[in-house]
Predict the structure.
Amino acid sequence: MFPDTKEQRCWFHKLGNVLAALPKSVHKDAKAALAEIYNAEDREHAAAAAAAFASTYGAKWPKAVAKVTEDLDVLLGFYDYPAEHWVHLRTTNPIESTFATVRLRQRVTKGPGSRAAGVAMAFKLIESAQVRWRAVNAPHLVALVRAGACFEKGKLLERGHQPDADLKAS
């Protein structure tokens, strides 16, 4: 439906999946190493942190490392957007917690009865939940993102300056 949509994997869920493939004795250090990746200052530093994670844990736990390295491009997709938005883009938990409210209410009522009633119930639950939602950092940048503006290292690129043009020139 939206073929040009970029994919971003959820770091919160990825963290859980990776830790599940590691023994509990290394969870604390592995968590810190994974945080080095998703909290890096830019994509290059994140890639270096991912390589460090792979070299530290790859020999003993290759499956855990593969969970990060095989999805690294989509895990680091948030770096293509404004730095102010990175905290919002790294996880799907805000979306999931919103729909968890709807799911819970639907279970309690044993189903809405009809499709129209279900849509109305979901709308009212989400409408009431939005009061508690955290506002987006730098909302003025959302319009630029929607317009297709390019960001590099979290900063807006000037018009006419495309990262691909720099690669072709070198």
Summary: The chain has two domains: 11-80, 82-156.
